[in-house]
């Protein structure tokens, strides 16, 4: 069993948000963004793009969220860049939420967990996204290892993509929607945690106001959809209500399109970060 070597993820996240605000910025090296930065689709350009973002942003926000798929497409060279992104972001003080959306059963889920949450893993992040499609309890290896190592998991509940609504709003055997069941399951895991638990949920900033009850969650809410997907800072209060203090608004393209200069990236980040922080006052 891996020993706890740091404070709980809930404590670390709370401290980071108090110091830098709740904004989470995605590092998504999409081909269209590489082109906009006058870069080609090569491992060298991937590294230049990603490390420019790290240099500009890792000292400015609480969380950076690299999207693993955009690195994996370059094979082993891309994975090497991803490892560097994680390492140097953490060294600059940002928490790294690795967006991998893993979900499986038994020994396979254990292996995924060790790849991203074990203390000595080359890609060890501060938290990862996970998929509960095989059942919330199938995530136990990740939830358990994250707790042991002071890391976190964010479980997909009600995502910002329109295609997710049909499944996520359908009725679970508990009588609630599937999305509400996921939120309630995370709440049970987080019960009695202080200042908050290590299991967060993913709930898009584009969902209907009041669609989910977060009152018992006692954990963070990753809220993608800010900017390019249509959500605004002003709609966050409508969607999340009293849960707003636990919300981590997430954006990527609305910041990365202001590259390739670090100054441009920082200016865009400061503008959105300040808007989000003011909303919570």
TrEMBL record:
Pathway: Pyrimidine metabolism; UMP biosynthesis via de novo pathway; UMP from orotate: step 2/2
Keyword set, alphabetical order: Decarboxylase, Lyase, Pyrimidine biosynthesis
Residue span, Orotidine 5'-phosphate decarboxylase domain: 22-268
Molecular function terms from GO: orotidine-5'-phosphate decarboxylase activity
CDD domains: OMP_decarboxylase_like
Catalytic activity of the protein: orotidine 5'-phosphate + H(+) = UMP + CO2
EC number: 4.1.1.23
Annotated InterPro entries: Aldolase_TIM (IPR013785), OMPdecase_AS (IPR018089), OMPdecase_type-2 (IPR011995), OMPdeCOase_dom (IPR001754), RibuloseP-bd_barrel (IPR011060)
Pfam families hit by this protein: OMPdecase (PF00215)
Catalytic residues in the record: 101
Coiled coil: none
Sequence intervals crossing the membrane: none
GO biological process: 'de novo' pyrimidine nucleobase biosynthetic process; 'de novo' UMP biosynthetic process
Similarity section: Belongs to the OMP decarboxylase family. Type 2 subfamily.
Protein name from the UniProt record: Orotidine 5'-phosphate decarboxylase
Organism: Saccharopolyspora antimicrobica
